[in-house]
């Protein structure tokens, strides 16, 4: 049932957001049945492409990651995605009163809004099976833009606020999302210094 929302958010988002609000799904079930499943797409595809397909650099020289290195980076990426979605969901709930929405004791709607807004980014992970940097960058940029629009569109419906307030609310949440993204990148660099960095091999 939860995975069916992924398709609906691309075809009829307003109706899908209304359905999501009515479900008021508990964050734990939403995470296990939706986020944990879809967030795995990008790490799995990245592991396959970087460990087995590789990419060309310079004079058509094929570069790959070792299987262990690819696995380590994929797991770190997966954990970062799970933490990021969870943190964004709590930010939605934490800011609720500021923008006229109801703050929930159990932030079901906030977690749902964050989780489903990230759907385009989750599905964009399939693009990593074609490891061409410019192609991946374009796909993820489009996915991020659509995800941001989904959040803006869903805020008034899921959180029950006026459409006008969704602009400021959405802008604040995008700022939080950028902070989360930067924090995870910085965390990755720190871990690289402890020996978890990428290990390259020629194809």
TrEMBL record:
Domain Yip1: 7-183
Places the protein is found: Membrane
Membrane topology reported for the UniProt record: Multi-pass membrane protein
InterPro entries cross-referenced by the UniProt entry: Yip1_dom
Any one Pfam family match given in the protein's UniProt record, by short name: Yip1
UniProt entry keywords in alphabetical sequence: Membrane, Transmembrane, Transmembrane helix
Membrane-spanning intervals of the chain: 31-55, 75-96, 108-128, 134-155, 167-194
GO cellular component, one term: membrane
Protein name: Yip1 domain-containing protein
Native organism: Marinobacter nitratireducens
